[in-house]
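The instructor's notes for this session suggest beginning with a concrete chain rather than abstract definitions. Hand out the sequence below and ask the class to guess, before any prediction is shown, which regions might be ordered.
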Amino acid sequence: QLAKQQVKEDAALIVQTALRNHLASKELATRQAEAAAQGQKEIRHDAAVIIQIFYRVNIRQRKLYAKVTSAARVVQRSLQVHRAQKRVAKLRAQAPKIRDTKITNDAAIIIQKAYRCYLAKKRVQVAIDARKAQQLCLKQEEAALMIQAFLRGASQKSKFKIQMEEHKSSIMNGTSVGSAS
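After discussion, reveal the predicted structure:
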């Protein structure tokens, strides 16, 4: 019922606001027609007055709406508290044995859930650590391969330079010997 009442009040406020807007614009149009001969100054003043009246009315409506919704919240909260108190009284009225058994079972279930959660998290953490260790090994192997490739390349390059220098020197020695003959 509170929800239906709230919807009705909201709808009424919307209709009232729309009606006031319509009436204000209609009144402004009639005043503009009357005041066309009197000049623009009076029209502006009348428009300002109409806007101020409309604004004041809306402020009052908003304050009233805020009070009503606040009161509705208070009533709803007190109803929730009352229902909770009734449930607690009903549980207390039950036989202590049934209540103790239920509490014990609930506590055991909660403990079991917590322990299973702990075990699952532990297994996941172990798997994550293993995966990280595996990835680290792969990265280290890849880095080692890159270093080895670089060193092989540098070694081959230096060997090639030495061979080239020997070849150049043999060519130079061979050319100079051949040109002297």
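Then share the key points. Confidence is low (pLDDT under 50) at residues 176-181. The CA atoms of residues 155 and 172 lie 25 Å apart.
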